[in-house]
């Protein structure tokens, strides 16, 4: 392993365009065999059209290819990690992980935004350019080194490193925080109780309950304590929607009298 790394680095300093190779090595974690697909991946169509070059030299075809590869790898990750989740959850989670906002963020964190060659055509155009370049960059890895290198890059350099998968999946569904805010607003007590924790063939399993003024309002299960609490809180919020808040508060205040 060390000898292979030494050989790659030695080769790096003997190459032409060694600065480009150095930058790509820092991003990829390995040396490209051919610079051309990466250069194409970082060339936006606005630049080729503005400079009167042929459009097939821009990154749109590589973007198409990279988009499919990212979808495949993310699907693999979700299918392997969330073994008890249904198709709907997996589809929704994949959509969040490959959405334009996430891919734009990945491109910036990797430093691709500083490498993209484009002709500035306005805010609307620029809102997608980095995410598109990232997809094209993955397409370039496939052309240069094949699918396994793409998968290795995404697993080791992107997901789990610059992308927090759990945070993105649950980013717009923080039911526990919403329930706590509800309790603080109406000055009523809530309590989360962990009622089960075990290890099985699929890993750790947790079950939680949430009580509103000592009454059970929600239950939830998942592969982490947080996940089980989120599901319990979601169920509690759904129940609270169907209860008149004034009647609820009167009932609780009456019991405490």
Outline type? elongated
Coarse structural class: mainly alpha
Radius of gyration (Å): 25 Å
Distance from N terminus to C terminus (CA atoms, Å) equals: 72 Å
Oligomer: single chain
Give the percentage of residues in beta strands: 5-15%
Q: Strand count, sense and closure of the main sheet?
A: 3 strands, antiparallel
Any descriptors?
257 residues; mainly alpha; three-stranded antiparallel beta sheet; 13 helices; 3 strands
3D architecture notes:
It is a single chain. The chain is mostly helical. Helix content is 63%, strand content 11%. The protein is built from 13 helices and three strands. A hairpin with a 2-residue loop joins β1 and β2. α5 crosses α6, α5 packs across α8 and α11 crosses α12. The radius of gyration is 25 Å and the shape is elongated.
Short structural description:
With 257 residues, the chain is mainly alpha-helical. Helices cover 63% and strands 11% of the residues.
Topology of helices and strands:
Layout: H1 2-14, H2 18-28, H3 36-41, H4 45-50, H5 60-81, H6 87-97, H7 100-110, H8 123-145, H9 147-158, H10 165-169, H11 175-186, E1 190-200, E2 203-212, E3 215-222, H12 225-241, H13 245-256
Antiparallel strand pairs: 1-2, 2-3
Helix pairs in contact: 5-6, 5-8, 7-8, 8-9, 11-12
